[in-house]
Amino acid sequence: MTDMNAKLKNRIDELIREDVLSGTSLIMSIFGDCIFQRGGVISLASLIQLMDVFGFNERSVRTAVFRLGQNGWLASEKIGRTSYYRVTESSHKRFIIAHDKIYGLSHHKWDQKWDLVLLSSVELENKAILKKELEWLGFANIATNVMAYPGCDEFEVHNLLYNLNMTEQVVVFRAEALHLWPESYPTLKRMVENNWPIAQLHERYDKFINDFRDFLNMVEDGEFTELQAFQLRILLVHQYRRILLKDPSLPLELLPTDWLALTARNLTSNLYQTVIGASEEFFLDIARTAEGTMPPAHPKFYKRFGGLKLTEAAY
Question: Around Cβ 217, how many Cβ atoms within 10 Å?
Fold first, then answer.
């Protein structure tokens, strides 16, 4: 092992120790990044091998997938003596939303309009469910019984209310902030900072950039193993996913001028592109389904971060 390779190994091991990884969350990252676009099914034995490289033993993996099954994310089936886990129909949409947010462009042009969801007519037992789902879409509770977001996807909100059978309990408004005096826009930005976790997200982006910029510098010369490529790929996506799924993707006009989301995305894209080929070799050598090796990836896989530098025929 070369000095650079050994240094990379030590730094990866250090990151794994520092982060105190959650088994359930890491499995979700592996499913979302590696498995979902290849049919969404993997053998438990394969998953145990993949989790082993992050320090998780068989018992902890079994416990984690059991919990994910209880929460409706994964379903298990047994063929002979082998167990397999697959993405459930109920969680399929969530995986698609997360995939598009992580690997695509997250910011959109804002029309200066705000979408307000009035919850005062929602039955009490349904209110907590609806608020959680709206928060997943980026909404924040700006006042009692009022959830807001600047420029939401109306199709997503419509589908959400329809699927929750709440179309007759909710009123949705479109509003626009009136700039009645010169100081009104800074006041609007302060309102955003008070209701969305802007400061916390900025700190998390900053730490993420500092951690993974070092890794990019270390692997740019291509001196790393397939195992290290896989570890880096999953740790990168895992950390990025945890931040990004908390990021409401607000319009840039409402965010601080030194907002770090674009820097973090570019770093993620560059490092991901650097290790994706070798990491796929490692993953595909281990991962198995009931039919044998993993099926070909969905075309969306190759469009990640604007287009992976891989040939579909190679995988």
Answer: 10
Q: Is 281 exposed, middle or buried (0-12, 13-18, 19+ CB in 10 A)?
A: middle
pLDDT digits (tens, 9 = 90+) for 165-176: 888 888 889 998
Q: Using pLDDT thresholds of 50, 70 and 90, give the confidence band for residue 6.
A: confident
The CB density around residue 50, as the number of other CB atoms within 10 Å, is: 23
User: How is residue 4 written in tokens?
Assistant: 């650079």
How far is it, in rounded angstroms, from Cα 196 to Cα 219? 35
Contacts for 200 with CB less than 8 Å, ≥ 6 apart = none
Domains of the chain are 113-176 (3.30.70)
Strands 82-87 and 41-43: antiparallel
Closest-CA residue to 240 (of 197, 279, 194, 271) = 271
pLDDT band at 183 (very low <50, low <70, confident <90, very high): low
For helices 226-244 and 198-219, the axis angle rounded to 10 degrees is: 170
pTM: 0.88
Give Dmax over CA atoms of the chain in angstroms.
Answer: 72
pLDDT digits (tens, 9 = 90+) for 43-66: 999 999 999 999 999 999 999 999
